[in-house]
Amino acid sequence: MEALLNERLGLYCPYIEKSLEEYVGLYCNYNLAECLPKAMLYSLEAGGKRIRPVLALEICRLLSGSYEAAKPAACAIEMIHTFSLIHDDLPAMDDDDLRRGKPSCHKAFDEAVAILAGDALSTLPYLVIANDDKLSDNCKAKLVSILSSETMNMIAGQIIDVENEGKAISEEILLELHSKKTCGLLRACCKMGAVCAGADENTVALFEEYAEYLGLAFQIIDDILDIIGDEKSLGKPVGSDAQSDKTTYATLVGVENARKKAFELTQKATTILDNFDDCDFLKQLTKYLLERNS
Ligand code: IPE
Ligand code: IPE
Ligand code: MG
Ligand code: MG
Ligand code: MG
């Protein structure tokens, strides 16, 4: 990995992890429901690449000079993402028993607790944003609007995903599905990072476009890794999509063509970054996400 990438991930990831723990500690003290914060922290702390919060922090830094200004937004998006993974693994959905290298939440606890931990992680983000003492009211309103609308898109994408199991779908529908289920949260974190920096609408729109290309490439790589990846490095089961009989970009056009498509989308994402100064880290991160094996 390139030096700058390592260095800045080494700064951002521990910062995000410490902040997530603080927010759960602050807002989830329930004497008679101790397993709720336990299950939330179990999934939050299991690891993960932290791509979404890193993007929020970095885009804010890039546009204003301070990554700390995006802390509530970064933690909010990682909570929503973790909620989406907990529910995605449930028997009624992808039925996967391994997540982030550990038993999935419903395996470590039980299904009811996993559903409720997901519910809590889908709600706490709004408390974190609303109660922040540094963000302006105007900024809070924009963050809530972005986060809720893109989360709705993610959920709509998950519905399209599960409803099409076992069906042959066209490339057009598949990309629409990806644009909702995966690009939704990536658009959210990129736009929220820009909003926390007080960016204008044109700048927010450029990062939205960047996130769209990045997210499409990201899901194609995820689908490829589900076929040719390694369970140990992925920290989740390989072959889950085949097991559920899903049409993925890789099953539709083959692994090699899918990789080409991900490469093209990554190039489009990178070209958008050329509009900004000081974006070497974002370019390295974008490239790493194409080449990743986890
Ligand atoms: C997995 O996301 C779900 C998809 C959108 C493909 P990540 O690959 O970012 O998962 P973590 O956060 O690193 O575990
Ligand atoms: C899920 O896509 C994306 C979400 C919104 C959680 P996948 O079902 O392919 O994600 P993984 O492979 O289980 O992480
Ligand atoms: Mg899924
Ligand atoms: Mg899944
Ligand atoms: Mg997958």
Task: Describe, in plain words, how this protein is organized in 3D.
The protein is mostly helical and 294 residues long. It has one domain: Orthogonal Bundle (Farnesyl Diphosphate Synthase), CATH 1.10.600. Helix content is 73%, strand content 1%. It is built from 15 helices and 2 strands. A two-stranded antiparallel ribbon has the order 1-2. A hairpin with a 2-residue loop joins β1 and β2. The chain is globular and about 50 Å long.
List descriptors:
binds 3-methylbut-3-enyl trihydrogen diphosphate, single chain, two-stranded antiparallel sheet, globular, Farnesyl Diphosphate Synthase, mainly alpha, 294 residues, binds magnesium ion
CATH class: Mainly Alpha
Strand percentage: under 5%
Using only C-alpha atoms, the radius of gyration works out to 18 Å
Compressed to H and E, one letter per element, the order equals: HHHHEEHHHHHHHHHHH
Work out the oligomeric state of the chains in this entry.
single chain
Strands ordered across the widest β-sheet: 1-2
* Number of H- or I-type helical stretches: 15
CATH topology: Farnesyl Diphosphate Synthase
Structural class: mainly alpha
Provide the low-confidence segments as ranges.
Answer: none
Helix amount: over 70%
Largest sheet: 2 strands, antiparallel
Q: Gap between N and C termini, in Å?
A: 13 Å
User: Ligands bound here?
Assistant: 3-methylbut-3-enyl trihydrogen diphosphate, magnesium ion
What's the CATH superfamily, by name?
A: Farnesyl Diphosphate Synthase
Number of strands: 2
